[in-house]
Amino acid sequence: MSKFFFKGRIEKKPKHESYGFNTNQAKKLGTEINPLQLVVNSDEKKTETEALLKQHELFATITVNSEAEENLVELETLINKPKTTVFEKTPNRNDPCSCGSGKKYKKCCG
């Protein structure tokens, strides 16, 4: 039988793909397994960040070092995630106009 009429898979499928093994697994930052690495300058700032971590249910290792520069970038990026913007759907031609004139959209603003 010719290879032009073969309807199956030519190369074998790797075993780990068929079992659902995730080969591209990314570890989530801020969990117990992969905590955030934060540097603060004072003990007061440490207590503030611990309260913030508890509020957002995150885990971090906080080091207090008065000589080093304060580093809270990882925490700020996790807390201030960008929101997905949702736009209102433009009305169809025969829908009433959104400006409130009472006319159809195609006669008023379309």
Task: Kindly summarize this structure in a few lines.
With 110 residues, the protein is of the alpha+beta class.
Question: How is this structure best described in words?
Answer:
The protein is an alpha+beta fold. The chain is built from 3 helices and 2 strands, in the order H-E-H-E-H. It has a two-stranded parallel ribbon. Strand 1 (36-40), helix 2 and strand 2 form a beta-alpha-beta unit. The protein is flat and about 65 Å long. The N and C termini lie far apart (62 Å). The model has no long low-confidence stretch (mean pLDDT 82).
Helix fraction by DSSP (H/I, runs of at least 4):
10-25%
Pairing-aware structural class of the strands and helices? alpha+beta
Mean pLDDT: 82
- Helix/strand order: HEHEH
Strand content range = 5-15%
- C-alpha end-to-end distance: 62 Å
Strands of the widest sheet, in order across it, are: 1-2
Compile the SSE list and pairings.
Layout: H1 15-18, E1 36-40, H2 43-56, E2 60-64, H3 73-79
Output the keywords:
2 strands, 110 residues, alpha+beta, single chain, two-stranded parallel sheet
